[in-house]
Design brief:
alpha+beta; 5-stranded antiparallel beta sheet; 3 helices
């Protein structure tokens, strides 16, 4: 004799008739997860390396465009002043720097502008997703704009970015 208090019978309700026989556990085993951990870590390290390469390319573009601008002005007026400015730019004095600040999800590429005796001003140039290498234009200091601009994992896109990037960020506008 079964006790109805200890093992009650379930009423025949509509939602009890449709139970799933599918296995609800994850299909990835712990061994698979561990095996792919190295690949994930390698991608994240490569994304960091590519972000640093982008910072270097942006700094180089700023130096080249500044020298070009000073040469243009030297041809029109005050040649000695502009030649002195070119030498200071080549020496790295008061040039823009691009640094990376790593957040929870993104590498934030920040442009640091020297301000003489005052603290340097900072603005976000771009965001790079740490796990996927996707490059975003910045919408604000804290958030990227919607829409992936480039994927740094794809060799052709990465090479295009490194060859065509400019310090002002024009390459990040929608294509």
């Amino acid at each position: 004799m079964n006790c109805t208090v200890c093992s009650p019978t379930l009423p025949d309700l509509p939602y009890t008739n449709f139970s799933s026989n599918k296995d609800m556990t994850a299909t990835t085993t712990f061994a698979d997860f561990c095996a792919t951990a190295d690949a994930r870590n390698t991608i994240e390290l490569n994304v960091r390396k590519w972000s640093l390469m982008l910072c270097d390319a942006l700094e180089q573009d700023y130096i080249e465009s500044s020298i070009k601008r000073q040469k243009f002005f030297a041809a029109t007026s005050n040649r000695e002043y502009h030649e002195q400015q070119i030498e200071e730019i080549k020496a790295g004095k008061d040039t823009y720097k691009f640094i990376i600040e790593t957040g929870r999800k993104y590498h934030k590429i920040i442009m640091v502008v020297p301000n003489g005796d005052r603290p340097a001003s900072r603005s976000v140039h771009a965001f790079v997703d740490k796990k996927t290498g996707e490059l975003y234009k910045s919408a604000s200091f804290k958030t990227p704009a919607k829409g992936v601009r480039y994927d740094l994992r794809i060799i052709e896109q990465r090479e295009h970015v490194l060859e065509n990037c400019d310090w002002a960020g024009c390459y990040l506008y929608q294509r």
